[in-house]
Amino acid sequence: MLFSCGENTKNEVKPPHTVRIANQKLTLEVEGMVCKMGCGGSIRKALLETKSVSSVDVDYQEDRKHQIVSVFYNKNQINKVAIMKLLESINDKQFKIAVIDEQAIAAKTPSKGK
Hints:
Elements lengths: L21 E10 L6 H11 L4 E7 L6 E8 L6 H14 L2 E13 L6
Antiparallel strand pairs: 1-3, 1-4, 2-3
Helix pairs in contact: 1-2
């Protein structure tokens, strides 16, 4: 690597991961889920990869047509429309999403296993 004299070569140390602090909860009705592990896992993974979501709770019951997914996110980093578009795009557009509720919450940091 070549550096010019005027270039800043100071090494900045960045933390290995950013702690995501949620200040908003979005409760969604999700149609098209066929299982908690696979579909719920796909939803959880896609949302957490945004780095703006701290946790995702999936309330799956096999006999229900619509499942409930709660998303805890930072509204300064992502919004409800972006979350819905993301979920509707995964698994070959398998899911139909509708908002049940949206509310501000006290800051919530991620919990392990979510």
